[in-house]
Structures are given as structure tokens and as C-alpha cells.
Design goal:
Length: 430
Amino acid sequence: MLDINYIRQNPEEVAKMLHDRQLQGDEPRLRRLLSIDTERRELVQKTDELKAVRNRRSKEIAELKKSGSDSAGQLIADMQSVGEEIAGLDSRLSALNLEMEEILLALPNRLDPSVPIGRTAEDNLVFGEPVHFPHPLEFEVKNHLELGKALGILDFERGAKVTGAGFPVYVGKGARLERALINFMLDRHTEEHGYTEVFPPFMVNRDSLRGTGQWPKFADQVYHMEEDELYAIPTAEVPVTNLHRDEMLSAAALPISYAAYSACFRREAGSYGKDTRGFLRVHQFNKVEMVKFTRPEESYAALETIRGHAEAILCALEIPYRVLLLCSGDISANAAKCYDIEVWSPAERKYLEASSCSNFEDYQARRANIRFKADGKSKPEFVHTLNGSGLATSRLMVSIIEHYQTPEGGIRVPEALVPYTGFKDISPLG
């Protein structure tokens, strides 16, 4: 969440941020927050003054009683009235604090100055040049659904029977290819990129969702197990970031870098009318996530590092891709700056998002209370948190299956994955 001191001192800047994010509807909420803040500070001052009076009078009453004077009665009566007034003010303060927190949790993060101003995804900027690899497809290509079904490696129909639409089943060499892809990415990130591997829970409590910003703003996107008050994770970012919730980290230990595999579960509420065929939009998918905790002054260099690590995976697999710098109207509410990495689908003839790499600055750390104390500083600071998909396998599998298809209807395995699969191709003959 944003710091109330920052909002108080920079209301015009916050209002502009809401406008740039196309969230003008949140401006009344901002005005209400500023009104609450003013009233709250006045009440705190008044309450403190009354409590100081009560403390002084309590000492006077004690002294009068000690001396045997019978004049303490009026002071006691007066203090009862003061106590009732303090109780009323405390009750009002409690209500204001709850309302303030509710608004702060709903407000989005501030934007880094390098984020382009735009209204929709159409205004995102292509960052650098799209990356291509020489794999000519000089024949009529099939899409990943056709190939997956013909080769017997993907079964969306049985997944729908077992669970529902958007829950794929990988079969035989398809399952092996998926597992190989996950292991390859984990090995690359841990052995070459310096991340520590963690294997997190796939369910979290509400405090964890709140810590990373999925609650309450995106509550409609997560699967909820009401009886246990647990939520299926939409991304490993949630449990991994919350590993350090309510902790004071060692300054010497920063940066901390984690890589984690998890299944991800998303309701995709509001996706009506979008293309939901095959892997284009699913409710369960696999992903390797990169998460970093850094000092504030190091976070933007870390963002470029994370993006580079995600790109390194695609280069090793020789998958065509491009990088987008998201504009103010398309960036997520939690991020101060975000890159999307999109892989090319030869059959769809368009780019598909396979990774997002974001710097949240102290937005998540403030919600999750993750701090460190720098050398020479008297007060602790909030860390900056970052994450990047390294990468999501569903859209990546689309590109691999389609990009490496053969004229005979088979699929070649990317060379980097052969040591993990144990086979070089998936042929129509099995």
C-alpha cells in the first residue's frame, strides 16, 4: 500500500497517478481518505490532550486521598466525564482507522516516471527489437490443439470431464515435456542465475493475499475454500513473498532471490468473449517464478536483471519473443513498473504473454511489513519486492509445440530440453 504520509504530502501527484491509470473513479476515494486523515489527526491530538489531563488529575486525586482530604470527589466525577469522552474518541478513531486501511488497501501503487502514459494495451511500447530464431515453417502450420490431440500428448476434453473447462491434462510425452520444461527453468535459475529454490504451499491464507496485493482488489480471481479459509494461489509470488511477512531482514543478506515452481489457479472472472481455446486461457497452469527482496536503491537494476533471466530461458529454447513496457492504463495495480514478455504463436499469428516482470517498490513490503535496517540508519526501512515469471509454461508450450512442428505432423524437442526429456522428438507414430 501507499504511505499515508506520501499521500498527505502529494495529493495532486496521487490524483494524477489515478488519472494516468484510467482510475478516475477512485478520486472520490482519495478525497475521502484525505478527509479521514485530517479528522483522525485532530482526534488523536484531542485524545492525547485529554489523556494527559486524566494522568495529571489522577496524580492529584492520589495525593488528595493520601493526605486524607475529602475534596477528591469532584475531581473523580470530572475524570469520569473525561474518561467517557476519551472512550468515545477512541471508538471514533477505531472506525476511522478501519476505513482508512480499507481505502489504502484499494489504492494502486505509484508509477515509475519511465512508465509510458496510455489508456489500453494498445499503448504499450515494444521494448527493444523482437527476437527471432531461424526455424522456417515452410508448410501449412497446425495449432497446438490440433497437434496435441493428434499426437496424444494433450487432452483438454478429459480435463473438462474431470474438472471443467480450462483444466488441461498432459499425457505421455506431453507430460514429460512439461516436466522437463519446469526442471530446465529451475536448474537454469538456480545454477546460473543465483536463485535459491523453494517449493511453496499451493494454498495460502487471506493475510498472504493481502500482503502481495491480491486481496481485496482481486478477490474475484482466486479460488476460495470457505470451510478452511484458504485460497488456491494465483502465482507462487504470493507464498514466496510472504515467507518474510512481518520480518526484519538482515541488511547484509539483501538482495534475497528465490525461484519457485508452482501450479497456479485463476478463476479468470470477466474473460467472457476472450479466446479460451486450449492453452490460450486456462484456470490451472504451471509456472516458475522469480522473486527478489532488495534495498530500495537497487530495485530498478534488479528489475532489469529479472527480465534478462526470463529472456535467457527463451533464448536457450530458441523461441521467438518480444518485450513490452506496459503503459499506465494496462499495468497492474500493484506494480510501479512492469515488462511483459510475449512469445510468438505461428498458428495464431500473434504474440502471447508468457511472463511479467514487475517492480513493486515498497508497495507489497508495506502491506506485508517486510523491513530491514541499513547500516548507519536509526529507523528500519521497507524492502523493495520484485517478481518475474520465469516462465509460465502454458503459453510457452503453445509456442514450443507450434514453433517446433514438422511437416510430418510431429514435434522436435528444443535442444536444451533433450537432456531432460530423454527423447528428441514426438512423432505421429509415438
